[in-house]
From TrEMBL:
Keywords: Aminoacyl-tRNA synthetase, ATP-binding, Cytoplasm, Ligase, Nucleotide-binding, Protein biosynthesis. Catalyzes the attachment of proline to tRNA(Pro) in a two-step reaction: proline is first activated by ATP to form Pro-AMP and then transferred to the acceptor end of tRNA(Pro). It comes from Sulfitobacter mediterraneus. Its EC number is 6.1.1.15. This is Proline--tRNA ligase. InterPro entries: aa-tRNA-synt_IIb, aa-tRNA-synth_II, aa-tRNA-synth_II/BPL/LPL, Anticodon-bd, Anticodon-bd_dom_sf, Pro-tRNA-ligase_IIa, Pro-tRNA-synth_IIa_bac-type, Pro-tRNA_synthetase. One of its GO terms (cellular component) is cytosol. The keyword Cytoplasm applies.
Amino acid sequence: MRLSRYFLPVLKENPSEAQIVSHRLMLRAGMIKQASAGIYSWLPLGFKVLRKIENIVHEEQQRAGHIPMLMPTLQSADLWRESGRYDDYGEEMLRIKDRHGRDMLYGPTNEELITDIFRSHVGSYKDLPLTLYHIQWKFRDEIRPRFGVMRGREFFMKDGYNFDLTKEDALHAYNRHLVSYLRTYERMGLQAIPMRADGGPIGGDYTHEFLVLAETGESEVFYDSAVTDLTFGDRAIDYDSVDQCAAVLEEFTSKYARTDETHDEALFAEVPEARQRTARGIEVGQIFYFGTKYSEAMGAKVQGPDGKTVPVHMGSHGIGVSRLLGAIIEASHDDKGIIWPEGVTPFHAGIVNLKQGDEEADAACDALYASLKALGLDPLYDDRNERAGGKFATMDLLGLPWRITVGPRGLKNGVVELTSRRTGESEEMPPEAAVEKIAQIYAGIA
Ligand code: 5CA
């Protein structure tokens, strides 16, 4: 993309309504615009990152054997009356009447809708195990929407639902989700720690939240610092293997890590004192096993191998897709702007032309741009007639991990400059070498 042809409404001043750095940087970098409290338009740059995050979530869900689909945002109240949650959910549910006076609602989550789909089409244990998921907009009429996309009213969420014959099978589905979530967050450059949590309005007492440690996080957390040494990495995993998935759960959840909802002082005291940590975290996902809560209330049953009809065991598993943009920025920025991890960056590299209009510099930039595109990469070329200082400041704000700087002086010696946004280190090299290096970096990232 050439910046002169893009739509990137960068703000010079810090917006006064933004209290935390991710919100401030997303507004300043022209990624989002508030439409009304807790509701945002996703401008082109923000939309690009949202799509990248969504794609990673899709890839990792499907790798785990979970099946994508799409349910509507608007739901009928009748299903929620069946489960008993129409009254329980309270003021967070946005209730709407259609022209015939029927009660509708903007879905805050989808347990009822998916259970209805399941009971309409599945009647035998032979169709299990089954995990269906979608990535769809949700609405929760939060009393205090704040921090931009972190606590929105309308937000983008991946929610998946497993249906299993037995509790053991459902716990395997739970473990499988835990593994796939670890992989998902790591691909986004994040460490998200699974912590014992509370079921809230979803229900069930077996649940973990995934937390990214950050001072601006809304949750108070207590943990053994040894959990921060764990990484999943690129180990091979067989998602059908009950033992392998259970071993990962054991490895990542056996050390003390809890949110304030389930914090237990006595258990925490057993952690060696030097390793006891109290901090704040951003909840980027949550997995639940709630057994037959919905299947019993709504009659989602299957016939088992012994011919008896039993309610299925279920769980639901969510990832805060839009919240993740905020969490990634909270975890990865400096005083100049965002620093995107390679896995989610909106553009792979920036090209800065120090002397727009100079025949040689323009030609070198065009050639670099074309070479990167030819390799399937997505560069952002700042071809505006602006001072070098302004161009650098914009690139730093946008946070692309790599920048190629092209100027007449370097070109006389046959070189351009390749700069890492994260370290600030620059290296001079021929343009082809810069292209090659960027291609190599992204080849390992998918
Ligand atoms: N049905 C279950 C699992 S699918 C569920 O709704 N879980 S949840 O309530 O924990 O939401 C899943 C994730 O959505 C949360 O972990 C959080 O990352 C994100 N989320 C929840 N509320 C908001 C909000 N108001 N703004 C942005 N993201 C949110």
